[in-house]
Amino acid sequence: MRILVQKYGGTSVAGLDRMKQVEARVKKGLAEGFKVVVVLSAMSGETNRLLGLARQWSANPDLSECDALVTTGEQVSVTLFAMLLKDAGIKCRSVMGFQIPILTNNNYGRARILEIDNAKLLDMLNEFDVLVVAGFQGVSCHGRLTTLGRGGSDTTGVALAAALSADVCEIYTDVKGVYTTDPNMCSTARKLDRISYDEMLEFSSMGAKVLQIRSVEFAKKYNVPVRVRSTFCDDPGTLVTQEDELMEDVLVSGIAYDKDQCRITVFNVMDCPGVAAAIFSPISDAGILVDMIVQNTSRDGRTDMTFTVSRTNLEKTLEILSRDNKDIGAVEVQHDLNVCKVSVIGVGMRNHSGVASMMFTCLRNENINILMISTSEIKITCLIEEKYLELAVRALHDAFGLDRAGGDRVC
Amino acid sequence: MRILVQKYGGTSVAGLDRMKQVEARVKKGLAEGFKVVVVLSAMSGETNRLLGLARQWSANPDLSECDALVTTGEQVSVTLFAMLLKDAGIKCRSVMGFQIPILTNNNYGRARILEIDNAKLLDMLNEFDVLVVAGFQGVSCHGRLTTLGRGGSDTTGVALAAALSADVCEIYTDVKGVYTTDPNMCSTARKLDRISYDEMLEFSSMGAKVLQIRSVEFAKKYNVPVRVRSTFCDDPGTLVTQEDELMEDVLVSGIAYDKDQCRITVFNVMDCPGVAAAIFSPISDAGILVDMIVQNTSRDGRTDMTFTVSRTNLEKTLEILSRDNKDIGAVEVQHDLNVCKVSVIGVGMRNHSGVASMMFTCLRNENINILMISTSEIKITCLIEEKYLELAVRALHDAFGLDRAGGDRVC
């Protein structure tokens, strides 16, 4: 049995006209001899509408009830679409997460998939040509409804593709694929034909909305080929797949950025063992993700500690720091909201040096001051003033030759 | 464990203000030492909104998908209400039909409950003080979502009360209880304090919206005391319960009517064995309920057959009759839409004669012609011209002394 998984996002299921386009894609899959598993999100705006209702009803909506509430969004999408397909004579049925079941932990609001038993799915695929599966949702081992977090339908699609050993998981969205950088910011941005899982992970972690980061982790773990493409045109999109030699020949695949950043500096902390733990443990315990961290060289047994958190976490972080002031001996905390991150990403970096210096040189040429630097195996990130973001992205895109097919070859 | 089941209809859950009133009732139940099982309908208009969506998407919406679609209405009600109760510090959770499970057959759109295993419910009641259960929905033995038909939340409430041996099942609605007749038609209509299951069945079968007929059958079968009352006032409402001597002392409990009727006459059918079956079997096979049937005395080996069906079924019935004309030898079919049924109902009839003649005399006194008559053990029904309906209801209500507490005593 050859199986094709197709996931469609909220803009693709926003109304009857668009669903007709989705129907045509499903039929194409059938005509090519596939059984098709269609994963749908809620219609655009529906999840927000439901969460808005929850906030009207409760000052602090219970997470487990919120999950059971918002799963109705996908339930409406899949039942309506199944009706449409049945009218077209296609043997199909809707499938909710709990009917498979997609078993998750009970971390409501951002549950993780524990297990998908494919036996029942394969039974259904023997009986039906198309399964229309509600994305984003699962069920805990106690039978409570759960959701996989924003963008979780991507993960549903990839997880089902993995469980069913599908030929490919197609992620349909309103963009043509993965770009070398944000086309809204840089007019010469170019769609990539292929990208490695690791590069895609870095793009996703920088806030690129094209794929939920967990779906990429899943795809990498189970080696599921993922094709990101547009519902509304025939472009083959971008294939997210295993790294190969061709990819490594390209020094840099793209430029990513993240504006949801703020910088916090704790001055004059005692420079002794355990001080970093004393600062960051309570922040981490509060569920706040600390991103870049820099510690200055110590003077007189004292040092400064600088780090970034997302802007929504600023207030909470400052509150924790002021509470724990005494333990770390800090005398002053400052923060800066006018910052952003810009990164160059590429698996080619693994084998080739010189990318960092090219990046720093490029920024210097534009007179952009670097506030912080962090590196990973395939990414170099600089924190800069937010007002220089667009300039930096364009200059880096240009400097690494990303407007040209194939990008800049190894120096 | 003392358990109270409370079912609230669509008007009771229509918005936050009203749900606050429901919250107050739930708290009252808790204060009296009960564990409370709250059964909710979808918010007013929500089921119709969802069915409207289905009709937009499909010319002939698939019934199984429709069921999975409309169950989201109750899911939204129960999750929002559970949030509200949790904010008030009450230990509670939402429960969907499939989570209990409420096992039904797969007759989508009007499924029947097959089984409710109370073990899981009792477990939940040990952990939580209040369960907020989605009404109207169940799950088939194949795991597909089903609904119990319009008004099915009443049945959910009564079935849960039966499964849990609850003290009482309270059905909250927007009227004070069960009346001797429709108060909108007869200003002297009086609320009944008690009514027997059989009488309630007759009222419900006449289209009285106060309780779904299947819920009354369920209540009778499992002897569940049901109290019909208003969400919006403190009146104790009407208790639907087992028949007792006091009830039998009352000759007539109420006057019911049904405007959704039309009369069909098949003239000149051959008067021979099997002709009734030849006429009614294909109608029944088409799922159409035939109500009153009268066969005239035969003349010259031919007779006329008259019966009533609901108005929505008229067209279909006429089509069937014209198709099967030859088998029954009928030469002419006539129909009349300007008719309605009026009934007097009372368990007192079982032991006392004279009710029929009182009814006929009353109608004659008002110059109302009787078109057809049918009787059951506790009900006498006359088909009359629709224009006389209001006059007939008022005259009968008066003739049987229903405006006076206790009604007319046995003659």
Protein architecture, described:
2 copies of one chain form a homodimer. The longest helix of chain A has 25 residues, at 63-87. Chain A has 13 helices and 20 strands. Chain A is an alpha/beta fold. The first copy, chain A, has helices at residues 16-31, 46-57, 63-87, 118-127, 152-163, 197-205, 213-222, 245-248, 275-285, 314-323, 325-328, 355-365, 389-399, and strands at 3-8, 35-40, 92-95, 102-104, 113-116, 130-134, 137-140, 145-147, 168-173, 194-196, 226-230, 238-241, 254-258, 262-270, 293-295, 302-309, 332-336, 339-345, 372-376, 379-385. At the A-B interface, helix 2 and helix 3 of A face helix 2 and helix 3 of B. Chains A, B: This is Aspartokinase.
Task: Tell me the greatest interface.
Answer: A-B, 38 and 38 residues
Structural class assignment of chain A: alpha/beta
Terminus-to-terminus distance of chain A: 46 Å
Provide the low-confidence segments of chain A as ranges: 407-411
CATH architecture of the largest domain in chain A: 3-Layer(aba) Sandwich
How many strand elements of chain A?
Answer: 20
Shape of chain A: globular
- From the alpha carbons, calculate the radius of gyration of chain A and give it in angstroms: 23 Å
Mean pLDDT of chain A: 91
Strand count, sense and barrel status of the largest sheet of chain A are: 8 strands, mixed
Give me the CATH fold name of the largest domain in chain A: Carbamate kinase
Helix content of chain A: 25-40%
Number of domains of chain A: 2
Oligomer: homodimer
Beta-strand portion of chain A reads 15-25%
- CATH level-4 homologous superfamily of the largest domain in chain A: Acetylglutamate kinase-like
